[in-house]
Amino acid sequence: MAQMGRPRTFDRDHAVEQALHLFWQHGYDATSLAQLKARLGGGISAPSFYAAFGSKEALFDECVQRYLATFAQVTECLWDESLPPRQAIETALRQSARMQCEDGHPKGCMVSLSVMSAPSPENARVVDALTQSRAHTRAGILACVERGVSAGQLPGTIHAPAMATMFDSFLQGISILARDNTQHEVIDAAITQILLTWDNAASTEPSTYRNDEKGLIDLTGE
Predict the structure, then answer these.
(1) Are 81 and 144 members of one domain?
(2) Where along the sequence lies the DNA-binding region (predicted)?
């Protein structure tokens, strides 16, 4: 009698990519084991699924790590101190918007969308890595604003956490716009508009002060 198992042509790496797209589109809870078995590798049995991936949770964890190592890298420029801080924020926003609107994968950002498709309380742990990723990006934006203040590119009167929250809120909102099929050109134009907040702040007050650990230093020497 022939034994049931994974198809001889089963490509595990491709199956993980297929699972990533399912989780990205539907979230953890809404992606059923039946959907996974039907879609992965052209259809596999439950024993084959568990042999290949261990569990749905383990597969989701693997998909999250793949997402963070690939698609989510569009915002890592926030930590590149060789870039001027405003440019780092602009690059992160524009790269993220472009990625979220691309064809070939679900629209939006899996990191942001995980909030709206949050798993049930008993499965809450599975999105910890995505929660940490959002915090990492938020901290990167704040670091850029603080660099802008320290470099005298923004006035010392700027409330850095508030400005950073504004940019972060816009970044998270791109996922909804992308899911609603808002054209990339429209989102890109909106990025130009929100960056005017930085430009207006920079021009409102002469940047004659610089922050250091002891407070504001008068750069005019007066």
Answers:
(1) yes
(2) 34-53
Kindly tell me the burial class for residue 183, based on how many C-beta atoms sit within 10 Å of its own C-beta (0-12, 13-18, 19 or more): exposed
- The candidate with the shortest Cα–Cα distance to 137, out of 115, 121, 155, is 115
| Same domain membership, residue 108 and residue 47 | no
Quote the domain boundaries for residue 20: 12-66
pLDDT one-digit tens code per residue, 111-167: 999 887 767 787 788 899 999 999 999 999 999 999 999 999 999 999 999 999 999
Which residue, 96, 104, 106, 101, is CA-closest to 21?
106
Does residue 213 share a domain with residue 105? yes
Does a structural domain hold residue 203?
A: yes
Query: Based on the domain organization, do 50 and 149 belong to the same domain?
Result: no
pTM of the model: 0.86
Q: Contact, 75 vs 137, CB < 8 A?
A: yes
